[in-house]
Amino acid sequence: MEIHYIGKNNSILNTFVSEIRDKEIQKDSLRFRRNIERIGEILSYELSKTLTYSTTSIDTPLDKKEVQLLNNELVLCSILRAGLPLHQGLLNYFDKAENAFISAFRHHPNNDAEFEIVVEYFASPSIENKTLLLADPMLATGQSLVAVFEAIKKYGIPKELHIVVVIASKEGVEFIEQHFPENTHLWIAALDDELNSKGYIVPGLGDAGDLAFGQKL
Questions:
Q1: What's the pTM value of the predicted model, to 2 decimals?
Q2: What is the SS3 assignment for 210?
Q3: Distance (Å, rounded) from C-alpha 153 to C-alpha 190?
Q4: Exposure pattern of 119-143 as b/e (b: 16+ CB <10 Å)?
Q5: Exposure string (b/e) for 160-169, b if CB count within 10 Å is 16 or more?
Q6: Is 214 helix (H, G, I), strand (E, B) or coil?
Q7: Which DSSP helix (H) or strand (E) runs through 123?
Q8: pLDDT (tens digit per residue) in 160-182
Q9: C-beta separation of 86 from 110 below 8 A
Q10: Are 117 and 145 in contact (CB under 8 A)?
Q11: Residue 3: which H helix or E strand, with range?
């Protein structure tokens, strides 16, 4: 797996990451969603540098001009519901991409810290031999991403796979390295050291879905 840790270098990206972490700024859910979206836009720009381009001639009002244009067949897939603002950031830049959505949640059968990942809903175009961008804002244990990819593979195998996350834990990165193809690209804005006993990233930011859309029952 090739890991692209964009936040390790100083840029405006780190301002947006700091704001989504700040518990006072988090009270504004509109600003939280917009910051996640902007992080998605920055990661999209960096990711775009690794894709495939071909030379195309266009007509300007004065002459012809040869330009390099993206020719990957892209499918953007986000994990509901927390992935929606990140998905929008990707779509703002890859506006001709096809779109897919999948649900995954932690089920605690014994009402304790142990959980399993339940995948229920999946709506997608064909991903066979296409470039799949799999978006989830938080890479904690990595179990959700692995479960989601196993479900997606039943509908086709992508030619290229890019995982896009906002904040990742080192443990989660190590876990998905063991379960995804070697040629997978992982794009992260921030990397945190640890998980707590409930499997949440520390310091992290809390529950991204709740912060974006309100607390769930």
A1: 0.92
A2: helix
A3: 28
A4: beebebeebeebbbbbbbbbbbbbb
A5: bbbbbbbbbb
A6: coil
A7: strand 116-123
A8: 999 999 999 999 999 999 999 99
A9: no
A10: no
A11: strand 2-5
